[in-house]
Amino acid sequence: MKTVYLETTFISYLVSEPSRDVIVAGHQQITREWWAHRRRVFTCCVSDVVWKEAARGDPAQAQRRLEVMRELPRLTVSDEVEGLARAILDGGALPPSAFPDAIHIAVAAAERMDYLLTWNCKHIANGAVRRRIEEIFRARDLYVPAISTPEELMGEDWKFEDLI
Fold first, then answer.
1. Tens digits of per-residue pLDDT, 120-139?
2. First-last CA distance in the chain
3. Which residues are within 8 A (CB) of 131 and not within 5 positions of it... i.e. 6 or more apart?
4. For residue 161, is pLDDT > 90?
5. Contacts of 82 (CB under 8 A, 6+ apart)
6. Residue 145 DSSP symbol
7. Under 8 Å between Cβ of 118 and 142
8. Is 163 part of a structural domain of the chain?
9. What number of other Cβ atoms are within 10 A of residue 118's Cβ?
10. What residues contact 143, with CB distance under 8 A and at least 6 apart?
11. What is the Cβ-side half-sphere exposure of residue 28, based on CA atoms within 13 angstroms?
12. CA–CA separation, 118 and 39 (whole Å)
């Protein structure tokens, strides 16, 4: 089975109350559809950082996020991962304030995950960021996971119209 690293935004969209923002609501629905119909095709994992981020905020929402992750394999943040995250920052792919986002990318790379699934389109699933990460990793002969949104990993037979 292919492997998927689920970044915190995926978990948050999965269990949060429906948004009144039409774009966010669409992302939430796609996330729920992916979870219901596609997750069994993959081995899904999270990391210590996802657990830490998911535990923050509203206690009831945090509990829902942690509960959905309970049975998922949990990946650790090693010295290798931290070094790789620093390389992402040093290479200019992300600003220093986005160190946790660099950790997500580094965990997925160090664990050789096939995909990193996220709705963070500012620092992770962003074409310019992806390109820079690929350049940094390839220059060091490192593995690069495919970074995508749940919508991009829905499968060939999926149609957005089916969600409406």
1. 999 999 999 999 999 999 99
2. 30
3. none
4. no
5. 103, 106
6. P
7. no
8. no
9. 25
10. 109, 112, 137
11. 13
12. 14
pTM of structure: 0.91
Q: Do residues 109 and 137 lie in contact, with contact meaning Cβ atoms separated by under 8 Å?
A: yes
Domain range holding 90?
Answer: 2-154
Residue with tokens 């915190």: 8
Q: What confidence tens digit (pLDDT) does each residue in 26-78 have? A: 999 999 999 999 999 999 999 999 999 999 999 999 999 999 999 999 999 99
Assigned domain for 160 exists = no
- DSSP label at residue 119: -
Sequence letter at residue 12: S
CA 152/CA 30 separation, integer angstroms? 10
Q: What's the length of the chain? A: 164
Torsion, Cα 147 149 151 153, to 10 degrees, reads 30
For the chain, what is the domain count?
Answer: 1
Residue 81's contacts (CB-CB under 8 Å, 6 or more residues apart) are 103, 106, 107, 110
